[in-house]
Specification:
CATH class of the largest domain: Alpha Beta
CATH architecture of the largest domain: 2-Layer Sandwich
Strand content: 5-15%
Low-confidence stretches: 10-71
Bound molecules: zinc ion
Largest sheet: 4 strands, antiparallel
Distance between the termini: 81 Å
Mean pLDDT: 81
Number of strands: 6
């Protein structure tokens, strides 16, 4: 009787163990299956940048969708009529977008014609007038080079650049049509009043460039394509290209030394 009871216990505990093991195995399978989709489906060009992050920071790493941004960052503004809109190589404006409040800012341009590229959105134009006046008070005389650019104009420009330099090189300094900040009416290329080195690399280091870098934010503008941030903006350093975002945002971006992409925690743009 005793022996029988013992073997009964043995069988019962064996059964229990088998049950436990199979349910454990099922759990493992399930977690493996649900775990699969959370594995990143796309890699950024710089996976090494994320590897240095602590596990808590890793959760904030950019997703493959530029519009979502990092979880702790400001949500990306993709409203084409917003002064805070992010337009870059990944985020395009609606096809043939044109702002409906374009005006001619009352500032000096390096050309005389009253044409499209002299126009800006009203708020940006007013701020630009203040910026030029502020520069002048500091003995810096600026000149507008190129402001608003329609998608049609950008298309012609870009095609010409591609013919001249090839697509890859052209993309480092010119935007694919629909992706140009100039189409927002919030960006302008600025040079000295004589137009020397207008939108050219020799503008770097000039008193005008230094003044813009130090003061543009006071008027709501940022240097959009920063030096050393080419992997994030996807553009060469352009000390002449300023972008209106409003004084509050510009001051924040300036003081942190970041790009608009970083402000939004958007995906770095690498061509
Ligand atoms: Zn520009």
């Amino acid at each position: 009787m005793y022996a029988f009871r013992n073997s009964y216990r043995l069988i019962a505990s064996l059964l229990l163990a088998v049950l436990l093991l199979t349910s454990l195995a099922a759990c493992k399978k399930e977690s493996a299956a649900t775990g699969a989709p959370t594995t990143p489906t796309s890699q950024t060009d710089k996976p090494s940048a994320d590897s240095s992050k602590s596990p808590s920071e890793a959760g904030d790493s950019p997703s493959s969708d530029a519009a979502t941004g990092g979880s702790s960052a400001v949500p990306v503004d993709t409203d084409s009529d917003s002064i805070a809109v992010l337009v870059n190589k990944q985020l395009a404006l609606p096809d043939n977008y044109k702002p409906d409040d374009l005006v001619y800012p009352n500032v000096h341009f390096i050309f005389d014609d009253k044409i499209e590229k002299r126009m800006m959105r009203k708020e940006a134009a007013t701020a630009l007038e203040d910026l030029f006046a502020g520069a002048e008070a500091d003995g810096i005389f600026l000149g507008g080079v190129s402001a608003f650019r329609s998608q049609a104009t950008q298309t012609v420009l870009f095609q010409n650049y591609v013919k001249k330099d090839g697509e890859e090189k052209a993309k480092m300094y010119s935007s694919v049509p629909g992706h140009s900040e100039h189409q927002t009416g919030l960006a302008i290329d600025v040079s000295g009043s004589t137009g020397v080195c207008a939108a050219e690399f020799c503008f770097e280091g000039t008193p005008e460039a230094e003044w813009l870098a130090a003061h543009a934010h006071e008027y709501g503008y940022i240097i959009r394509y920063l030096k050393g941030k080419e992997d994030i903006t996807g553009f060469d350093y352009e000390p002449w290209h300023i972008r209106y975002v409003g004084t509050e945002m510009a001051a924040d971006i300036y003081s942190r030394g970041i790009t608009l992409e970083e402000y939004y925690g958007a995906v770095p743009v690498t061509n």
